[in-house]
Amino acid sequence: MSLGCPAKIRLSNTSTKLKITMLQFNHNHTVEPPKLKYYSRNRRLDNNTIEIIKKYDNHKVPRSIIRNIIMSENQSKLTTIKDISNILDKTTINNLPSQATAIEKILNEMKILDSTATIDVTISGNNQLEMIYIATTQMQENFKKYYHIIFFDVTYRINIEGFCLYVFLIQDGRGIGMWQGEYTTMHTFSQYNMR
């Protein structure tokens, strides 16, 4: 009620029914049908449009362009980039087994390409991914030579599950920074002990 609009509906619960106790329809601003297009319930997309969005996303089309395509096909319906993101996020969340398979495949490919790399994966008791630590052979050799970590950074919520990405940098004898390792976890540093 940032406009201080007095319009309201008040209900009371009598445990079996909802009873309307107050109706006030007097607004202190204009109520125009064109503004209804901004309500999320009026921006819902049908199944055909959702499939089109998924198809474009599979081809790596930027979400802003997807939004423009959808709006050009249906000019009466407002669609935001956030609407597109919400649809694609729901699709990804419903597809978690394939994400786990994809992660496992990538880690196995890394291990084949660099057989002495350190790749640690921790799974919780309820079969949830807890942590991934990766240090290639080159990273390990650099750390043996220049063993002082000079920079430690974190990026929060890098994926749908809210994982954090920690990066460790070392500095060689010439003052050039080198990536020493990466650590991805569900927990923030203060919640989880890192090795």
Automatic annotation (TrEMBL):
InterPro entries xref list: Zinc_finger_SWIM, ZSWIM1-3_RNaseH-like
Domain ZSWIM1/3 RNaseH-like: 115-176
PANTHER family per UniProt: SWIM-TYPE DOMAIN-CONTAINING PROTEIN
Stated name of the protein: ZSWIM1/3 RNaseH-like domain-containing protein
Organism encoding this protein: Didymodactylos carnosus
Lineage: Eukaryota, Metazoa, Spiralia, Gnathifera, Rotifera
